[in-house]
Records
---
Amino acid sequence: MRDVAVLGVGMHPFGKFPDKSVTDLCRDAVVAALSDAGMQWRDIEAVAAASSRFSGGKGWGLNGNDVVEDMGSTGIPVYNMSAGCAAGGNAFNVGYALVAGGIYDSVLVVGGEKMPKGFIQTSGVEEETDPEFLRQRCVGMPGPSFWALLCRQRMEEFGTTEEQLAKVAVKAHQVAVHNEYARFRKEFSLEQVLGSNLVSDPLRLFEICPVSDGAAAAIICSAEKAKQLASNPVWVAGSSVATMRFDDGLPRGLAGVVPPGRSYHSEASLAVEKALAQAGAGPEDLDFVELQDNTVYYELAFPEDWGLCKPGEAEHMLETNETLPTGKMPINPSGGFLCFGEATTAMGVFQVCELTWQLRGEAGPRQVPGAKLGLGQTLGLGGNATAVVLKR
Amino acid sequence: MTAKRTPVIDGLFSDTADGARLMGSRCATCNVPYFPRSELCHNPDCTESRMEDASFGPHGTVWSSSVQNYPPPPPARYDEPYEPYALGVVDLTDGLRVVGRMAVDDPKTVKVGGKVELVIEPMCTEADGTEVTTWMFRPI
């Protein structure tokens, strides 16, 4: 395996852009990433793209082809990757593998999405053999209620309070004020978060991420290529993809086996463990983490799953400000999904952008001091998860 | 006069003299339960898939619960005006963790860890007055 560098990153700000297409959003991100890398479009040898479910891609998730046609059809190979909300992370892993394996020297990884209004509809398929269809038709439990059920279970097990849930959102907005790419750049008080409407009791409107339009791009290169263009690039220390295990105890379809032990979010844990092992690092070596905070619940549950703190201690870490950029274990210094809104398939690449800026020391007032090793993680429908560890 | 009833999906559940049942299967080799029915045992540690029809319920314990505070998007069904309902994840004594609505008047009253029984109850009504039923969990 060859060493792989992240040479350039770029993002289109997140928000609602009714006058732009997803290709418009991706164009801005790709042009910015090329400029950041000091490369021309002709230098790109292959594209690993996240397949959008909601926009562009000729209705078939061919978003990478849209990008190539837009930038200029040079005949390069395009890999369109589908993994629900983990698609951006999945595309990064495929791009990484192609460079690490010696197939190409420079690959563009890109993800963009224009989201329809309202909460994500979890199934477009009306077939009685589709468990997601059955779950919505027979029970009626859309995405936020799944998160609410996990959150309530945690509250029962660890005594997490409504105030602690709200504090995660307060913290996210506190840092996003400093991120020019974030959709929501306004501080909220604890009272404001607790005063927002219940969406799925116990979760409130400001405690779950909305949907946004956005795009992100990253250019990854072999070490040889990178050293021609940059003196001190950011390196990929680990990149992995995983799916859930059979003994996972979360209520995903209509029913599963009651697990013998505590086995939740197994796909995310597997991906993170693999990426850290590849990096030769332990959770204690991480300087900061960008995790998929569709809801405040994940920012409390994931750090415990991954050994960033002990089970039941995430609330203490939050309340002692250890998850702020200046704390011992900064979590989501970008502001995370809560402040960007989820442009589903772009998110894995969005995390690579933030990791890169942090590791270069370019994150301004939200900078994690002395950041050398950072983790990004995504989670997608179907039991998909990805993790990436970048280092400087 | 009792309203006519129809299941939201055929073949998933039934009412018996001993209470409601979910219709699924169980692997005779590794004993893993499945709902809905499965043609193949999905347990990667199972040595031979031997699927047999099985039914599950009615007794269980609430693993977690929440309230669906807003009207869910399609293909969920509900009557207008929308009334929030409680959702539950229940561990049946048969070893199955199942999702379902809670058959309670006040969704805030559901207790995690509480004992429940499986019931078949109306979830919405067709234009002709036919009640559409699904499985739910009622605290006992």
---
Amino acid sequence: MIEREVTIRNRAGLHTRPAASIVKLAAKFQSEFFIEKDSFQINGKSIIGVMTLAAEQGSKLLVRFDGPDEEEAYRAMAELFDSGFGEPI
Amino acid sequence: MSKTAKQEIKLKGIPASPGIAIGPAYLFRKHEPTIQIRAIEVGEVGKEISRLQNAIARSKKELTKVFDFAEQKLGADQSKIFEAQLLLLEDAVLFEVVYKRLKEELKNVEFLIQDEMEKYHRLMTASNDQYARERADDLLDVENRILRNLEEQKLISKIDGSHIVVTRNLAAADALIFSRNEVMAYVTEIGGATSHMALLARALKIPAVVGVHQISLLAHADDLVIVDGYDGAIVLHPSPEVLKRYEKKKEDYRTFEETLAPLRELPAETLDGHCIKLAANVELEEELEFIKLQGADGIGLYRTESLLLGEEVFPTEEEQYEVYHRIAEAVYPKDVIIRTFDIGGDKFMAQTVKENNPFLGWRGVRVMLDKPQIFLDQLRAILRASKKKNIAVMLPMVTNLKEVQLTKQLIAQAKDDLRARRIAFDDKIKLGVMIEVPAAAIIADHLGREVNFLSIGTNDLIQYLLAVDRGNDIVSELFQEFHPAVIRFLRRIIERGKQKNSWVGMCGQMAGDPLATILLVGLGLDEFSVVPNAVPEIKKIIRSIHYTEAIRVAERVLMMQSEDEIKTYLKNLMKRKFPDIPIE
């Protein structure tokens, strides 16, 4: 199990497009994936769940991976977050 | 409790589509506010999964269409909503949970979907973030869409062509669903005879009666019902004598209609050689074969709104071209007059404004001129289909000359577009306008010089003229086709509208009323466009009179001062000359 902190870097925050990117990426991996914000936990493979997070720029989230490919999954997700989901920072 | 025979109940409504139907009632109630929880058998699990998957697939298809349209025509802002909704529809986790619960709890999918989505909905509405709250609305929309698709499929499977649909009200989109399943007849509690549903019923030759108060309370599922679409009578649980009487009436009408068959190939010409164009009003492609059988002289009104029924987006230029092309081919060498979209502003998703008085508001050509991109799509599609030169364009709800001139500019632009794409079209395509607004009627001479033809839309014209909503049960009797003001108005429109290069026709319901035929011929109407049903009957009347005689009839009617006087005179005339035509 891997648990790490990530930051929302893009200006617009976690709106539809980034939410979709996260979910699409998570679907590629077998590992279970959860995101936690202020002790509120959602399943990271559910778009509804991710949309509910509604995190703005600067928020810190906890991402948790559990499964055979958890290392890979985390690395890929960290990169996605780091790049600000490919949006203006 | 012994089983007693149900009491026969006779009811009266407004006849909306002719024909007699005798059969079991199917009570249609739309939008059940509460989702029922239904326990299901283990063996039904597979079926429930399929139902849900189908509903999801249909919802996806609908949303993709809406999204594409929004993106192209309405801009990124509007389309974002649908993009989010599409994603919601693809939430694997949500549906995984639903399927799991289905197998464990053995309940119907409607309940499970609503239950699961409600959880998320609550979470989202409670969020501090505006974005999350907005997505809550999207989630609700998606939920409703899935539930609607589940319901529609259930509905379609229930109707198997042997029921009479009884309902409080029937929206056009519902009627279309039913029409694809061969319903025997429609009966509604509210609604007027010119409602869209009534038009559809007539087009599909399905008997219909509207405005039957209380029927949804009095009728029960599978009750035997008699529907008389000729005079608006309904009988619930008919006695054997009444049943026999109606079966005979049904047979009599059928025989009468058969006598009209030989008229098919003959022209609508009076005994003294005055020729009249007798065309048909068409809504659905299904009617095309039928018009040929009826011997119509082409299509005097093709209502393009039928392409929008049950759709959330406007069809593309290509999609429209396919339809217009098929219709033009089917009637060739006869003509088809295509009327541009005649819709209310409420069809536009972008509009959040609710008009207080839509009938006097943003509709008809006004809307199209405000949405030139959409108008151009339609104009280009029509032009493309006009290669064989048998298409004309007609504008609805024209009020002034400027609307015609602006349209002509757009047509010119559409032509330029097509030339640049090297697509052939009829450069001399004819343009006409509907005369429905009283102002247009009064400047019929100006309009007649600007266009190739005028077509009188009596349905709306009379409503505007007499200030009566035909769909309003309380005053619908005041809607009088034979009001002296209406007759004078028609006379004026016809006289002034006929210019060197323009003719005057009528596509409103009055054109198909046998009681009005002789009068309209005498007033000088050049063209009648009627429901396909009515073509043989109207043709028979035209072929049995002298034009000179019709002129005299018109002159007499123009001197009468009351609707009663006029109707009595015409009824007596018809009874004398055409005793076998049933006149109510």
---
Amino acid sequence: MRNLFELLYYFRELLLMLLAVLVSFMLLLTGESRQSFALQDLSTGMIGIMPHPDFGLVDIISYKEENQVLRQRLMQYTLLNAELADAARENERLRDMLRFTEETPYELQVAEVISRGASSVLSTITLNVGTRHGVEPNFPVLALNGLLGKTMSVAPNASIVQLITDRNFRLSVKVGSEGVRGILTPLYGPFAEVTGISLNSDVRPGDQVLTSGFSDIYPKNLRVALVDEVVVTPGENFSRVRVRFQAEPSEAEHVFVMVNHGPDA
Amino acid sequence: MCLLWLTMVPMLKIIAIFIGVILAQLYLAQLLSLGDIRPDLILIFLIFASARYGRITGILLGFSVGLLQDLTGSLSVLGANALVKSLVGYTVGTLNGTMTVWTPRIVNLYIYGTLLGHAIIYQTIMIQGLRASPGLLASHILLEFLMSSVIVTGMRYLIPIMPSRA
């Protein structure tokens, strides 16, 4: 017995390392369990309490560029707004004719990105809003250009967003003018693949990829990506559509959380 | 009481540095990013701490900081950082008992080899399940390795990785 203890003590470092490796593998295999989410909620709460620095100089430089882009956008949106106002009037008239009930407008909560996680590879962002601001898990998060992800772990003053680029992210989308339905699966970096698009569908590079609305989380017609490439493999019934995300997670400074969007809202 | 305080001072120092490094990784690392890759300041801290305090501290610290990193990210790869950081803690912790035996050149090779190993294992885990080309994986490994190497080299001019032999 004493020899066994001596042996264990002699190899204590190796045994500790093997234990750490074993636990890590177990975590990798269990992944998104309830306990993991509970642990993550705890760490999100801690990040929410921590003070985060305000990079004044960096902000001034980036705000100047952002200001120019926003001015251009404002002009574009002013022109677009005139067209939309006309379309809205027509739409209202048609809705009345068809006795459609008016849809509940979306309520957006502006949030600041306070962190991009502690890993060397970007997979989440942390926002400065939480349950105190009406945010709950599984709320869609948008950037100016399009869908960015959904809230995953929410603390009173902070929330972690699962980005659209995350490997476990799946989204029902519609592609192109025909609105062909498919499932979006992220690839590495800013690219994703839409599967389930039949060969005779009219999908071309540059086509818009929008949310289909077949989800309790995401309302329909949110901008997601643009078609980058359509690959047809001989012998297959479906084409592989490679798309590029419109929102850029590494550059987003301020985002919007849709806090009133579901069928119950 | 005084003795207790004296023994606690180094521990408090490590904890203070640890909190500082975590904050820097959370809020500053993005400013130093190249493409999709950001410098892993926690890895640098772990290398210095493991070399100074040995394997056991290295493994425990590596696992803890790795798990913390994983929890701030997407849970789809929970355990990836804990795994590689534990291995790094064990590997670099070996330096603690070899400083009188190994030459500086071997120590350098050992540290940069560990950084390369970390980059290879971590990026390979991160790419699992995603359809990425081997070229992209290689570029990410190289980028992470170069970033870590540059920071470690710079830091070693400021802080010796191990106490002097004298």
---
Amino acid sequence: MDFNSDNDKGQLVLYGIPASVGYSYGKAFVIKKAIFNSKKSDLIQNPKEEFERFAKTISEYESQLDSYLSLIGKEKNPAVSVLNSVRSILQDPFLWDEIKETIEKGFSAESAVEIVFNKYKNSILSIKNKILRERAYEIEQIKNQIIELLQTKKLFTFIPEQAIIVANSLSPDQVVFFRNKQITGIITEVGGITTHTSILARSFGIPEVIGVSNATELISNGDEIIIDGYKGIIVVNPLEQALSNFRIKVEKENEFKKSLGELINLPTRTKDGRSLELQINLNTREELENPVIYHSDGLGLVRTEHLVPLNNIWNNSNLLDTEDYQYQIYDEVATRLFPKPVIFRAFDIGADKFPNFFNLSESNPMLGFRGIRLLLGKPEFFKAQIKAFLRASVHGNVKIMLPMISTLSEIQKSLELIEECKKELDEKGIEYHKGIEFGVMIETPAAALIVDLIAPYVDFISFGTNDLTQYTVVADRDNNFVSMYFEPFHPSVLRLLKMATDDAKKRKVKVGICGELASHPSATALLIGLEFDSISVSAPNFLQVKKWISEIVFKEARKKAKEVLKMGTASDIRRFLKIS
Amino acid sequence: MVVKEVEVINPAGMHTRPAAEVVKVASRYKSKIFLEVDGYSVNAKSIIGLMTLPAVQGTKVKIIAEGYDEEEALDAIVDLFNKGFNEI
């Protein structure tokens, strides 16, 4: 990389939507949009020859796809199914018939492709659902690719290495093609964060920023470019200051990548092959810039009371404002993680968290108005949050979770409110994911003991071990007089975990744990032995826990868990697990 | 002609991959097969046509088959929908 070249072109900073994280530096390779107007003026003489030209081009396109597929190999890559679906579109016999008919009317192959594909594109664009509508981009991309091939026979034969591709938009197979040309980044003017193109960029680890207006006009071939794929910032022809800031960031990122080692890209699995989800607990928006979360299996717990600056919504009596405000935050989290799952937990306020929002004087706030109780006591406030969740769910990867459940009626009432919210959104014609999953935290003995009754209402449960421990052993860990009683390895806590897990699994409800408990290798082994489907940890612990899991033998862990459940005291259990 | 209404149950709805599955199954039969949502109907043997179908999770889709193997064709497509296109 040559950072020291003179530049007198002037620095330009552009902003877009971060679609694939990472930093990169390179020289721009700008692809101008192929402008093609279908006119009857390019009428052709010999329809038969023209149709053959089309057929030959399609088979060229298919052999290109084949060569991409062979480059990717048989690894289970999202690119494989993406490329195969492009192929099935190219082979659609009805599409061929229509192209043939159009050519026979006297249109050139290019025009026929333009006319027929646009027909389909336009009917997709008339679909109300935003996700389905994104398929229109795919149709547009395939169309452009065919037209380019028809016109030039070979597309993009020369692309400099380390190039940063700047385009109006890219097709999935172009991303695969460019990846093999060692490009270092992608900038597009349009596109969606959930399109195949963005998914591929993320899976290949190519930094991508989308939605950069007029990028192909503002950036010229050969311009030096810095991409910040975390923030969606592009610096064109950067000055020395920007370059040195960039170098520091890259160095940090490289160190981080080195520290991750091989493990990061492997699926989470025990030594004997039992797979589970290892997820991350998210507290703040800043954490979205921690690359490790994009290597996890999703967000197992988003603490919305930390994520959303509560002051901004608490003092605002306009509920629609607070809904919109929250929606923007949740949508950012959900889209940046897509397609990985994101579990938003409704505000867990009260007790020790933000007590000053209410002028409540509770003599015992830990046993007071907190979590779901507070939410149900402020239904309009709660509904604004639910609606914000629902709106952010439109991509299909959002789940809702409720805090501090202690009775079944709390779940029933919340579900009624969720139904009300759905209806209100329906009336306004606002989209959301109809099959959005719903779950509850199990952090009180009262809830843990009735998981069999809760199961019919939920898709998943997730244990919060800190609260479950304090409410089971009746000790505050911050109170010096009793903190020694705060004992997550108390047999009764473990029995509750075991019982509730079995009750849930019998009813096909998924079980997760948001685990401070997973902070020790043998404690992690215990959780694995208790057969949790997912474990969610804070980002700094992620890799360590992943490493521990890879060293655990599930069958042994299960045996050990059985042993532990027979033991009478926490100190026996700790000794057995070698936890001090 | 045989007709049956089914519901889309997979969370992602009729995206590209399920569309490809439908084409694969439908193409095994001689009958004409159409899928219809709110009066908008597409040929089940055309993937690009299926991609234009506004079918998300929960959408009711009418399946219409006509031809000498229409019963078998209808059953096969209904089965595919009920299995959530093998996605769930």
